[in-house]
Amino acid sequence: MTTSFEAFLKQHDEEAWSAALTTLLRSIHEVDRNATQIWFSFYPLSLFQALEQAEDPETLSQRLLMQGNYRLKDQIDSSHTFLYGHRYWPEVKTAVQKHAREFSGTASLSDQVVSVAQQVAKQLKVDPSLVIGITAVAFMTIRQAGLAAVEAAPGKMLIDKKYARKSPAEVLRDRAVDDSQGFFSFLKTVDKKWTVTYDENDDRARYRMNHMQDLAWGAADDRSRNWREVDPRRIEGPIPVECRSASCGTCWVGVLGGAEKLTDVAAREGKKIKEFGYVDTAESKPLIRLACQAQALGAVSIVIPPWNGVFGKYLKRMKEDV
Ligand code: FES
After folding, report:
1. Ligand 1 atom with the shortest distance to the CA of 251
2. What is the per-residue pLDDT across 84-141, written as a single tens digit (0 to 9) for each?
3. Whole-structure pTM over 0.70, yes or no?
4. Total tally of structural domains belonging to the chain
5. Which atom of ligand 1 is nearest to the CA of 243?
6. Distance, CA of 135 to CA of 283 (rounded, Å)
């Protein structure tokens, strides 16, 4: 049975969530501002609704060329490990569940997120700005997975304590570090190397690449693991790739840190990423990029989503038909 809290969440469409997120962003700590936006791009409500309303979701997912793990209900505890706030997930999950069960309020979506985050922050004695992003994630997870499924999930913090102990300042400092190129680096042009971090909670999760190489090309040299075993979409290196020419949408990534150190979105990348459905923006350095197109001009920290698809045109047509 749908609870009144779930019914409240359902009253909000993609635009309403997006407006709430825009309001919340001002109060989210810098360490999670990009991560929260990336998470909401990785789990778009409109795509979830299209699949939910489809007569045959399986056939639709094939038509939209969906590959990988796109269902939030299968990754309730794990979809957000790249948020700093993930370390507070057990407490946030408990507080949001309580809020949902006792729900009777008329406050706006964003005010409810802030209110729950403030309670958790008080309990943990941390700044509320560190908890708001992960609380918004918990709300959307209930929207897509349902309250019962969220309650049934273990609610574990999944990153190693070694990383969980880092302060926001340390994480931000790590993201800002550019690789030293040694003495006379100013004389070097072609042989500069940059580090790409693709999981901030794993010291091994990084590869080196040449200046002005695209992110996917650089990743292909990383043979540190059997990538197909980790994810069958990863045919070489940690980033899934197929076409390498902005045609398939397999290689999308979120940029946690260093978006300004990637080349501007060129016309083809901008057009195709919108068609795929990942992001619709005129920004020259957005937080969502195609790894086969974005070239590195410095060290960056990225997140690799667990799925890919081609759904932009389908969702646009659905919206026009309403
Ligand atoms: S590998 Fe196909 S779009 Fe990048």
Report:
1. 4
2. 999 999 999 999 999 999 998 789 999 999 999 999 999 999 999 999 999 999 999 9
3. yes
4. 2
5. 2
6. 27
